[in-house]
């Protein structure tokens, strides 16, 4: 400790005070040894009277040989280098990266563990994941395994086009929903689960307009480029009578408590004028209702 | 009650008070406890948490009577029937609300663990909600474990006794660490113990505990920076990762709870209390049902870094694992009590040598004997050189009195 303190002092005052400092240090060391001798004498005296004292380990002086070395170097150069005390002190820098990969439980596991229930010691393997085709070993030739492989193959063939889209090439997320939708429709569902049931009329109109627009441009471009596309699915044309409900009048438009007859309806009921009856009487009658449809 | 004058069992001091009260309630023997902190000139008699536990016992039982002497140094308790939270007996909804005073210094696990021992023998499902200004959900300096440790390390032990763990629930509605001066918190915890049995099954847990396979845990922060969680987890993993690869610790951050500030001028004023952080680690072994746990929380006066705490918790877990056995020190009293209350058959449990030699287990063994249970048989494990001890406990066949009548 004494050596350390001396060093600090030297650094502060520079070389000018080198000589007196050294002598001071020598004298302090002499004093130390004298003190130790005195202590040893006291100790011996004490131990002779009472019982032996426990051995006191003297703190080892950090650098015993350093001063001599330094002295020889100091003569040669002005700069006395870095202080040795600082060299021997290893600077410990602890860098903790709190943002580094945290202990990430899977979502289900975290939910199960942090719920108010007693956590299960063995986590249940989710069925969805267990059904992955890869889980079945290839050399399993049993009937059940073959069936599973068949199913997996069928699904792969039917759904592989989903994986071709450039944006999403995984079987999770959007593609998984699309695959589920396809399977449900294959099982006989009339509507798609992806179709939104309730939405503002204007939105729906816009979507439908966009769809038809896209379809027509596609067809137009294909036609211009000479590509033959699949047949257009034409809308079902209304054929036959409009369903007018039970007990409703078979003619005209009933609104606001009044049956409104258009001129055409009246003409249809009245039939052609008598004056021209000789010429087109039968023809007019034959047309009757039917003619109305061709408008 | 027109029963003949009951024969009191006499005990002294406040040590393992809850354990004795639980045994008294289970066996139906009245007890008399004297010299409760009688030598303390400043705080003689029962502490606030002990009084609170007595009140809790009164609310979950029917017909129990309690006498506390003027100074609180003497206590007479005559147990009643454990009714649980049956309708019409001080329950609101289907839960008993129990208010802990702000002077409470113990974690809520001090109440939960003995209450869980009573719950399987209750007549109706036992649902208790702890609230008020004394509910501390974290671990404490006095050695209480946190609610997370109760839920993940103590409650799974009941599965061994045929008590369905699916019907046990411990909801932590509000977390709270220890408040200023080591007193109070503001947490809300609800225990729902829906599985009652006539007699607990005989336990045979004398197999080798096996190697630790996975480590789970919860790091919690209330009212302090949530990054403390990450720091605790990081250092704990630094110690444990070379030993086990499967380590996952969940991080839980909550706001500090609001409690009344007890300001006379403004009775509506509220303040935040119970800030702090802590870590609870659970190690599960390859052998089913063996769980080791460690629990450390920051002291209320602060001054520790999360890194130190994480390190301390990891080392504590390693120490608990090194003690061996199939049940840890914190779970041993629960397991041995339930075994003693079981059917008249000999059950066995393998415990670490240090755990069997610990003071609270020795006291528990003596108390059980005093309450009329048979003595334990101890035998060294000779299959391996772990130095563990197999404790054989013969059940007293007391079981659930309420179920027997019904």
Give the topology.
The complex is a heterodimer of chains A (295) and B (406).
Chain A (H helix, E strand, L loop, with lengths): L1 H12 L4 H32 L16 H11 L7 H5 L18 H8 L12 H4 L12 H21 L10 H13 L14 H24 L28 E3 L2 E3 L2 H8 L6 H17 L2
Antiparallel strand pairs in A: 1-2
Chain B lengths: L8 E4 L4 H11 L3 E4 L13 H13 E2 L2 E4 L6 E4 L2 E2 L13 E5 L8 H10 L7 E7 L14 H8 L13 E7 L13 E6 L10 E2 L6 E11 L4 H14 L6 E8 L3 E3 L9 E3 L3 E10 L5 E7 L8 H18 L5 H13 L4 E6 L1 H4 L2 H12 L6 E4 L8 E6 L6 H5 L1
Parallel strand pairs in B: 1-2, 7-8, 11-18, 12-13
Antiparallel strand pairs in B: 2-5, 3-6, 4-5, 8-10, 9-10, 12-16, 14-15, 16-17, 18-20, 19-20
Protein name (chain A): Protein FAF1
Pfam families (chain A): FSAF1 (PF15375)
InterPro entries (chain A): FSAF1-like, Ribosomal_biogenesis_FAF1-like
Description of the molecule:
Chain B: InterPro entries: RNA3'-term_phos_cycl_insert, RNA3'_phos_cyclase_dom, RNA3'_phos_cyclase_dom_sf, RNA3'_term_phos_cyc, RNA3'_term_phos_cyc_type_2, RNA3'P_cycl/enolpyr_Trfase_a/b, RPTC_insert. Chain B: Belongs to the RNA 3'-terminal cyclase family. Type 2 subfamily. The complex is a heterodimer of chains A (295) and B (406). With 295 residues, chain A is mostly helical. Among the domains of chain A are: 2-86; 141-193. Chain A has helices at 2-13, 18-49, 66-76, 84-88, 107-114, 127-130, 143-163, 174-186, 201-224, 263-270, 277-293; strands at residues 253-255, 258-260. Chain A has a two-stranded antiparallel sheet with strand order 1-2. In chain A, helix 1 (2-13) packs antiparallel against helix 2. The longest helix of chain A is centred in the N-terminal third of the chain and has 32 residues, at 18-49. Chain A is elongated and about 160 Å long. The model of chain A is unreliable at 1-22, 63-74, 124-135 and 283-295 (pLDDT under 50). Chain B is α+β, with helices and mostly antiparallel strands. Among the domains of chain B are: 205-323, Dihydrodipicolinate Reductase, domain 2; 327-394. In chain B, 27% of the residues lie in helices and 26% in strands. Chain B contains 10 helices and 20 strands. Chain B has helices spanning 17-27, 48-60, 109-118, 147-154, 227-240, 306-323, 329-341, 353-356, 359-370, 401-405; strands spanning 9-12, 31-34, 61-62, 65-68, 75-78, 81-82, 96-100, 126-132, 168-174, 188-193, 204-205, 212-222, 247-254, 258-260, 270-272, 276-285, 291-297, 346-351, 377-380, 389-394. Chain B has a 4-stranded mixed sheet with strand order 1-2-5-4, covered by helices on one side. A 4-stranded mixed sheet of chain B has the order 7-8-10-9, covered by helices on one side. In chain B, strand 7, helix 3 (109-118) and strand 8 form a beta-alpha-beta unit. In chain B, helix 1 runs parallel beside helix 3. The longest helix of chain B is centred in the C-terminal third of the chain and has 18 residues, at 306-323. The two termini of chain B are 20 Å apart. The mean pLDDT of chain B is 91.
């Amino acid at each position: 400790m004494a050596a350390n303190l001396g060093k600090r002092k030297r650094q502060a005052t520079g070389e000018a005070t080198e000589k007196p400092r050294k002598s001071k240090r020598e004298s302090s060391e002499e004093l130390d040894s004298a003190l130790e001798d005195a202590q040893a004498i006291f100790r011996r005296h004490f131990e002779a009277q009472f019982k032996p004292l426990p051995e006191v380990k003297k703190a080892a002086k950090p650098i015993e040989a350093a001063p001599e070395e330094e002295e020889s170097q100091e003569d040669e150069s002005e700069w006395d280098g870095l202080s040795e005390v600082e060299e021997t002190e290893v600077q410990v820098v602890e860098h903790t990266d709190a943002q580094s990969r945290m202990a990430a439980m899977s979502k289900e596991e975290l939910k199960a563990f942090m719920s108010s229930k007693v956590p299960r010691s063995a986590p249940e393997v989710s069925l969805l994941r267990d059904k992955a085709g890869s889980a079945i070993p290839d050399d399993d030739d049993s009937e059940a395994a073959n069936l599973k492989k068949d199913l997996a193959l069928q699904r792969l063939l039917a759904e592989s086009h989903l994986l071709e889209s450039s944006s999403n090439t995984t079987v999770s997320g959007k593609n998984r929903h699309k695959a589920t939708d396809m399977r449900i429709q294959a099982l006989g569902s009339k509507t798609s689960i992806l179709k939104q049931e309730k939405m503002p009329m204007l939105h729906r109109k816009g979507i439908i307009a966009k769809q038809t627009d896209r379809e027509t441009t596609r067809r137009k471009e294909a036609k211009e480029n000479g590509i033959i596309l699949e047949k257009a699915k034409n809308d079902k044309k209304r054929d036959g009578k409009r369903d007018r409900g039970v007990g409703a009048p078979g003619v005209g438009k009933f609104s606001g408590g009044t049956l409104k007859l258009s001129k055409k309806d009246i003409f249809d009921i009245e039939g052609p004028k008598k004056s021209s009856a000789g010429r087109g009487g039968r023809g007019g009658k034959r047309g009757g209702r039917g003619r109305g449809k061709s408008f | 009650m027109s029963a003949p004058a009951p024969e009191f069992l006499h005990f002294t001091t406040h040590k393992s008070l809850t354990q004795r009260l639980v045994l008294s309630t289970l066996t139906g023997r009245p007890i008399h406890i004297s010299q409760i902190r009688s030598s303390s000139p400043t705080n003689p008699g029962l502490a606030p948490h002990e009084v609170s536990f007595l009140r809790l016992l009164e609310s979950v039982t029917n017909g129990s009577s309690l006498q506390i002497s003027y100074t609180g140094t003497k206590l007479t308790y005559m147990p009643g029937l454990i009714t649980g939270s049956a309708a019409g007996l001080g329950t609101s909804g289907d839960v008993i609300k129990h208010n802990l005073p702000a002077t409470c210094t113990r974690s809520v696990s001090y109440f939960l663990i003995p209450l869980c021992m009573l719950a399987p023998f209750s007549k109706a499902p036992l649902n208790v909600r702890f609230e008020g200004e004394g509910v501390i959900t974290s671990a404490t300096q006095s050695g209480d474990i946190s609610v997370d440790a109760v839920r993940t390390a103590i409650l799974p032990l009941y599965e061994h006794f045929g008590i369905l763990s699916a019907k046990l629930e411990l909801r932590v509605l509000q977390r709270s660490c220890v408040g200023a001066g080591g007193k109070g918190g503001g947490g809300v915890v609800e225990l729902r113990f829906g599985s009652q049995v006539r007699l607990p099954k005989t336990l045979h847990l004398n197999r080798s505990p096996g190697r630790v396979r996975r480590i789970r845990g919860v790091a919690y922060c209330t009212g302090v920076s949530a990054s403390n969680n990450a720091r605790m987890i990081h250092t704990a993993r630094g110690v444990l990762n070379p030993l086990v690869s499967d380590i996952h610790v969940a991080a839980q951050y909550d706001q500090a709870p609001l409690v009344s500030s007890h300001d006379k001028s403004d009775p509506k004023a509220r303040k935040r209390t119970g800030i702090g952080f802590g870590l609870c680690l659970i190690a599960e072994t390859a052998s089913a049902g063996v769980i080791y746990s460690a629990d450390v929380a920051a002291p209320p006066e602060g001054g520790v870094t999360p890194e130190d705490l994480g390190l301390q918790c990891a080392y504590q877990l390693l120490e608990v694992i090194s003690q061996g056995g199939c049940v840890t020190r914190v779970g041993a009293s629960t397991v041995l009590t339930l075994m003693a209350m079981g059917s008249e058959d000999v059950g066995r449990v393998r415990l670490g040598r240090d755990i069997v030699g610990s003071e609270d287990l020795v006291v528990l063994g003596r108390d059980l004997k005093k309450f009329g249970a048979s003595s334990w048989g101890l035998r060294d494990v000779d299959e391996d050189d772990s130095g563990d001890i197999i404790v054989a406990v013969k059940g007293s066949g007391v079981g659930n009195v309420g179920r027997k009548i019904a």
